[in-house]
Amino acid sequence: MISYIKGVVEYISENYIIVENNGVGYNIQVSESTIGKLSVNNNIVKIYTYMNVKEDEISLFGFLSMEELEIFNKLISVSGVGPKAALSILSAMSPDEVVLAIISDDVTALSKGRGIGKRIAQRIALELKDKIDAFRYSKGNLVDFSLNINEPDNINGGEKRDAVEALVSLGFGRSEAVKTVMETADDNMSSADIISLALKKLSS
């Protein structure tokens, strides 16, 4: 198993890169967001990898962070979601957006990946929702959030939940609403105050 490859990017295509290490060029399939962060130069890059082995093919999928690789592994654990489908989701959404979409059942957001239909998106949300909290991703770090708006026992959780539902009713995406409420609300605010602050943030 190849955990990562460290080397120089020799070539960048639409959906893969070639990384040279000790005279060997590795063809690595990557997300569009990863391609946007790379350039052909003499700088050393470290690409975390997943090796997909089939009867007639061995392919590498690469990621610039362990967080993205972890979410990729979660996605491919869902029945019907292969490596290329998982990569298409990560091309359309950042890792934290994927996590927020899963925990908020945002099927529309998960369907942004090429080849991801509504049924598969629903399956992703259903199967991963209870597995994703332990490594929720935010601002480049894996963190364990104490806030879960779906748990009524949390302090003021009901006010946050009501605010999210209100924002969704106004036409905002569920994952966008969850993220904004998480970033703006504190435990002493009413749902009306949360909604007011969230709307200002969303319109800025």
What does this structure look like?
- The chain has a five-stranded mixed beta barrel. The protein has a two-stranded antiparallel sheet with strand order 6-7.
- The chain has nine helices and seven strands; from the N terminus they run E-E-E-H-E-E-H-H-H-H-H-E-E-H-H-H.
- The chain is α+β, with helices and mostly antiparallel strands.
- A hairpin with a 2-residue loop joins strand 2 (16-21) and strand 3.
Describe the structure concisely for a colleague.
The chain is built from nine helices and seven strands. With 204 residues, the protein is of the alpha+beta class.
Strand order of the largest sheet: 1-2-3-5-4
- CATH topology assignment of the largest domain: DNA polymerase, domain 1
Count of extended strands: 7
Shape: elongated
Tally of discrete structural domains:
3
Look at the structure and give the CATH class of the largest domain. Mainly Alpha
Terminal residue distance = 46 Å
Multimeric organization? single chain
SSE inventory with pairings:
Layout: E1 4-12, E2 16-21, E3 24-29, H1 32-36, E4 44-53, E5 58-63, H2 66-76, H3 83-92, H4 95-103, H5 107-110, H6 118-128, E6 137-138, E7 141-142, H7 157-169, H8 174-184, H9 191-203
Parallel strand pairs: 3-5
Antiparallel strand pairs: 1-2, 1-4, 2-3, 4-5, 6-7
Features:
204 residues; alpha+beta; OB fold (Dihydrolipoamide Acetyltransferase, E2P); DNA polymerase, domain 1; Helicase, Ruva Protein, domain 3; 3 domains; five-stranded mixed β-barrel; two-stranded antiparallel sheet; 7 strands; 43% helix; elongated
